[in-house]
Amino acid sequence: MTQIEISKYLDIPFATLNDWKQEDSNRNKLYELLSNLDTQEVGKILNKKNNHRFFHILNRNIDTENFIYEDIKKAFSKKDYHDATIKEQTIFSKFFKELEVNELEDFIKTFSLSKRDIKSIYISSPFRNIQGIAKNWDKRFRLKHSDFNTIKKTKSIPSALQNILNKKNLTNV
Questions:
Q1: Cα four-point dihedral sign 55, 139, 78, 105
Q2: Taking Cα atoms as reference points, which of 52, 151, 144 lies closest to residue 106?
Q3: CA nearest 143: which of 161, 168, 157, 124?
Q4: Pick from 67, 14, 59, 6: which is nearest to 35 by CA?
Q5: Mean pLDDT by 10-residue block, N- to C-terminus, for the chain (173 residues)?
Q6: Whole-angstrom Cα distance, residue 92 to residue 32?
Q7: Which of 96, 87, 45, 41 is nearest to 68 (CA)?
Q8: What's the predicted TM-score (pTM) here?
C-alpha cells in the first residue's frame, strides 16, 4: 500500500506516517508492514463488517430502511430477548432461524460480539421452543435439548366429536 492508501484506510495523518517512515522510529517496522500489505486484501478486511452474509439475510424483502452494522451491535448488546425492541427481535428472529450454526464464529468476529451474550439471548427467546431451531442451537451452545422444550403438534379432536364421545362415556381414544 502507498502512504496515501494507508492514511485513507486507517485514518493516520501523513505527518505521523512520515515519522514512522524514519529508520530510527520505533514504529518503522509497523510502517513497513503496512506498506507491504495488499490494498485489495485490506479493503476486504475493513469492509467485511458491511458485507457480511447476515446483512443479505436481514435486508432482503425490505424496501424501506435497511439494517446497519450499529443496529446489529446494539441488538446483541442486550442480555435478554424480552428487553429488545421489535426491530431487535426481528434481528434475533432472522439470526436464529436463518444463520447457520457453523457461521457463528465468523459472525462474532465480524461484529465483535460475545458468545455469552448471544447464548443468553437465545436461552430467553421463544426460539428455544421451536424444534428445528432448538436442536441445532442447543447443540451449539451445549445446552441440554429436551423434548419438553419443543412445541409438539398434537392432533386435537373436534369439539362435536368430543361431545359424542363424552355422551357415550368414552374418553379420548
A1: negative
A2: 52
A3: 124
A4: 6
A5: 87 91 93 90 70 82 81 92 93 91 88 91 92 89 70 63 73 53
A6: 42
A7: 87
A8: 0.59
